[in-house]
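Quick start: what a row looks like.
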Amino acid sequence: QVQLQESGPGLVKPSQTLSLTCTVSGGSITSAYYSWSWIRQPPGKGLEWMGVITYDGNTYYSPSLKSRTSISRDTSKNQFSLQLISVTPEDTAVYYCARGLTEYTYWGQGTQVTVSS
């Protein structure tokens, strides 16, 4: 059973960088041919795919967030991470990590991130 767990600060100030980590257990993030995504859900809105890192380390981002988003990984810890720069209150959301690109077989429980001064 694959499990994912998000971690990171729950409160970020405007203009700062949001950093989250997803720790994966029960499976390797380098196992072919899985992809590992970050997805968010702002309050009262639908899910928004942010980006993905593939089993071999390639990254792809949502065009609307590409200029502010970076996804990386630490294979020794079986973790992948999200950085979102220059955040605004509009970046307030529940952030999820998940396995998959367009269909997701496993999800983390989600972590609330609020952008506020």
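That is the whole record. The two ends are 39 Å apart (CA to CA). The mean pLDDT is 97.
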